Predict the 3D structure of the following.
Amino acid sequence: MKRAACAALLILAGCGATAGDVTAPGVAAVRQPPTAEQRAPRADLVLPGETHFKSVRQMTFGGQNAEAYWSWNDDALILQITDPPSPACDQIFIADVESGWLRQVTDSGRNTCAYFLPGDERILFASTVEDSPDCPPEPDRSQGYVWPLYEYDVFTAKRDGSERRNITHSPGYDAEATVAADGRIVFTSTRSGDIELWSMNAEGGDLRQLTHEVGYDGGAFFSPDGKRMVWRASRPTSPEALAEYTGLLAKGLVKPSVMELYIADADGSNVRQLTANGKANFAPYFTPDGRSILFASNMADPQGRAFEIWKIDVDGGHLEQITHDPGSFASFPMFSRDGRWLAFSSNRNGSVPHETNVFIAEWAP
């Protein structure tokens, strides 16, 4: 896990980027597209036991590439990339799915949790750029593995990064924003004094607090019909756990070692707990029919270091392992809107240990 925003371990639609595209001022397309051979779907990237994958196509090559989410018309992915020295910390890119061209749309601060707004004309992301144009310092991990709650705000912009607008303007942590088909935004914020889910409209207005329990609530996604949401949460109940949680929160930190999945109506009502394995469960996303959820978990690794993608029904039944890459990392599953493809991030086929790339699998129901 790498950051407190949408990621938990690390750590592209309709852009049509080409070599001649004009990018936003100060932002340059920094990656050439993969060759036709590199971007071709490959059966050998499907690992034994991955019966839901017909083929797998690799979209990125090198560095840390994660949280790739589809455009509404399925022709691009928006993601974050760290590949020092440039970019030195997470920046947002858009990748054209067909060609593989990557366009960089941010160039300062730390940026995360990008998503396309309905219509694909504007994007949504969190950034520390107004707190400082520099990369924020890494957290003190003397108390174990922790996520920093950086001074993020939520921004919208045109898909080339221009016309950036801060829509939260709130001290503290505002990040992990995703969008329903009607344009309603769900995000994570510390504005109440705890780490809670909130919703707002596309301009940052009509704020509503959706969760109210002590503990971290974040990484929420809406169901395809926009009527429900699923997210990850910690619920420190013992005096010791509560003291640790509040002590870390006061320092702008959170420890993600135990996160369970919850589901509720889009307004935060009718909350139900989906998992109860005492592990780190995160990055939940609904299947296109809304009946099941894919998510990442380290439940199968006694050491708690390896993460696989799993599937569970919305009633908590029929748990099924989707990826099978022992000792590795797979996460951030998101279906294309038509349900044919699954984007995810994985260590598979890396050129160096722990390299994380974005992949697209052809889905077999």
